[in-house]
Amino acid sequence: MTSVTGLLDLRRTVPQKYIPVMVTAGLFVAMFVAGGIRYEGFATGQIVLNVFIDNAFLLVVAVGMTFVILTGGIDLSVGSVVGLSTMVSASLLKDGWPAFGVMALVLVIGAVLGLGMGAIIHYFEIQPFIVTLAGMFLARGLCYTISTDSIPIENATFTAIAQTRVDLGGDMWVSPSVLIALVVVLAAAYVLHYTRLGRNVYATGGSEQSALLMGLPVARTKIAVYTVSGFCSALGGLLFAFYSLSGYGLSAVGMELDAIAAVVIGGTLLTGGSGYLLGTVLGVLVLGLIQTIISFEGTLSSWWTKIFIGLLLFAFILLQRLITARRR
Amino acid sequence: MAAPAPILRMSGIGKQFPGVKALDDVDFRLLPGEVHALMGENGAGKSTLIKVLTGVYDIDAGEIELEGRRVAFSSPLAAQQAGISTVYQEVNLCANLSVAENIFIGREPRRLGRIQWKKMRRRAEEILSRLDLDLDVSAPLSSYSLAIQQMVAIARAVDIDAKVLILDEPTSSLDAGEVAQLFRVMRRLKEQGIAILFVSHFLDQIYEISDRMTILRNGTLVGEYLTSELSQVELVGKMIGRELADLEKLEDRPPAREGAPLVETELLGRTGAIEPFTLTIHEGEVVGLAGLLGSGRTEIARLLFGADHAGTGALKIDGQAVSLRTPRSAVARKIAFCSENRRAEGLIPDLTVRENIILALQAARGWTRPIPRRRQDELVEKYISALNIRPANPEQLVRNLSGGNQQKVLLARWLILEPRLLILDEPTRGIDVGAKAEIQRLVAELSDGGMAVLFISAELEEVLRLSHKVGVLRDRRLVAELDNDEGLTTDRLTETIASGAIS
């Protein structure tokens, strides 16, 4: 009862639009504190940093997904594109390609795939769900044409990036991937808030019809968000390759669902037009912290992660429903 | 006054659609600093003229001159850039964005590609204050009423250096206070020399705000008049091309026949929607419901149609207690409901007139027993001619019909079921004088034929003209039930609504 009245008070003092993000932030802090009380050695900064290290690729993928969902769309292809990126990297590196050439090519492939799907969605007026579902099968299928087995990565640059520790002082460290992910987050937040493209993303998600009548470039915006998402998936794939130092056709199966879950738990409306990138970051952190807690618990199987994510999703969708219902 | 040179001149405009001549040799001019009303029935060509002007349609004949230069716009955006902005009935803004953003999106002040939020908010405040509006420009648009949203749309329109502002039925969903506010804004703009083209179905509003009017009928020009020199009766005569005989015939409405009670409610109510009310509707009786928007008129209709469940009280039909669990059970008891929101809740725009009309009958029969095509054609033919649906083509898509004709299609759908109680929620909103008169006449005829009608309308004159009995609603409560005798006037109704008691 007190929590309900607490929420009502909150509504009076902070703008409604920040409530979902604040709820997610509150949840993260509560989980961290609860974990710290329950488990020894949990309440350290490195635990949070480890969540970043283990989920840097998911964070990047979720940033791209945030763009798409803000326009009211969805991108189911991201997991497959991550998988494809690891495969392309691993196989080209094995053939002796230079590391940076491989990285550039992978990013271009991801962006082009996204661009193609965006163009089909816009110009043929097909639901994003169907188009990106097709993209998902396509990318996953391409993985197996490269190889059905796992290909190890032994390239010097890749292994160097994978093994580098960036010290933050006080025995705390992060991987270069975390820094890349944070740069992506900051750049994306800037784009969403301070550029026309970003505002057009929100406007398109609010009402595509109105955006069109206001003379906004809806076509360009919609195609751009899928391109961004494709690019982010490819970059996420590179980070995943740094993390696992191998390419495998079955890697990142279902990651699209984790990314969507992170975005929704971060308070972005699936119908589009409302949400913040900070929420997505918090969403990824919450998902990562659940995994950490379950590994600390020791006795629970890792499938409990899925159960908790499922329950959280239900709770957050209900919360969104309540907030949008109030608004009407 | 010496007329200044027109800022906009359209001459000899012609526009042809397959099978219809929408505009034929129409001239139109707009002077700076005037409010010019474009008048005509639904289907007279008002919308087409506006769409031709703003580049939604190409023109087939004639030419358009803006400030003396010949123009042809390829899209609304091109028209906007040339200084012709349009604000539609539905607010075409993004409610999730802030007020300031809605005014500036697409033209945000930037430096090195970075949007300057502070500058944007300051300029938004300036623009709004010029329109006498004091809003929190960083609040989301959705936190303001529809009227305010409309004025934000106008602010957006005039900020694009507008010379011509087109307001296409901006007032149809506003209440009196909001209309007054809109008119203040319009007068402000007029003083600044902007030419305003105004379309509305409310004659009183036209006379209050407009300086001049152009009348269209069946796609042709009837004439251009100074508002001060044309009486309302003359105007309506010119619009519909015949005398007001139809409307006047209704004035001598026969008294209600002594029918048996058809529907009786006893303290029927639903928490949060309508306080318990007791109301009896007799056969052949027209019961009007008067009250402000949101006073509970539609809620009563929804209870009687089974669209909502009653929380308290009892409902009797033919003296027998029933509980209407779904609209289906109401239809089975011969109750029909024409929703106020005909686009969202009634018609299916992508089906043809025939398919829309036949829908309720088919649903009542069940899908396993399709209505034979010949029977469909007969029925549809009959109702198209009885209700004078235009164009009289059963295979026309409903989306292509004007508002008044769409309303008639919806009516036909329910009349085919031969209901005993017909609930009409705002059947005449947003439709023109001629169609209005036809629908009113139809209601009178139906009730003469023994059908009971529950008639809901925001226009008190209309309620008075048609009803035998008027229920007055206020704050979700049925506050009075008045017999429509000599003593009942719109003034008394207004008073009752305002005071909440029988005066």
Automatic annotation (TrEMBL), chain A:
**Keyword Transcription among record annotations:** no
Q: Which GO terms describe its cellular component?
A: plasma membrane
- Which residue ranges traverse the bilayer? 18-35, 47-70, 100-124, 173-192, 223-243, 276-296, 302-323
The annotated topology with respect to the bilayer is:
Multi-pass membrane protein
Signal peptide coordinates = none
* Cellular localization per UniProt: Cell membrane
UniProtKB keywords: Cell membrane, Membrane, Transmembrane, Transmembrane helix
Q: Return the Pfam families for the record.
A: BPD_transp_2
One MF term in GO for this entry? transmembrane transporter activity
* UniProt entry tagged with the keyword Mitochondrion: no
Highest taxon listed in the record's lineage: Bacteria
Q: What is this protein called?
A: Sugar ABC transporter permease YjfF
Species of origin reads Microbispora cellulosiformans
UniProtKB/TrEMBL annotation, chain B:
List each copy of the ABC transporter domain by range: 8-243, 242-500
Keyword hit for tRNA processing = no
* GO MF term set: ATP binding
What InterPro entries does this protein's entry cite?
AAA+_ATPase, ABC_carbohydrate_import_ATPase, ABC_transporter-like_ATP-bd, ABC_transporter-like_CS, P-loop_NTPase
Keywords from the UniProt entry: ATP-binding, Nucleotide-binding, Repeat, Transport
Alphabetical list of PANTHER family matching this protein: CARBOHYDRATE TRANSPORT ATP-BINDING PROTEIN MG119-RELATED, GALACTOFURANOSE TRANSPORTER ATP-BINDING PROTEIN YTFR
Q: What is this protein called?
A: Sugar ABC transporter ATP-binding protein
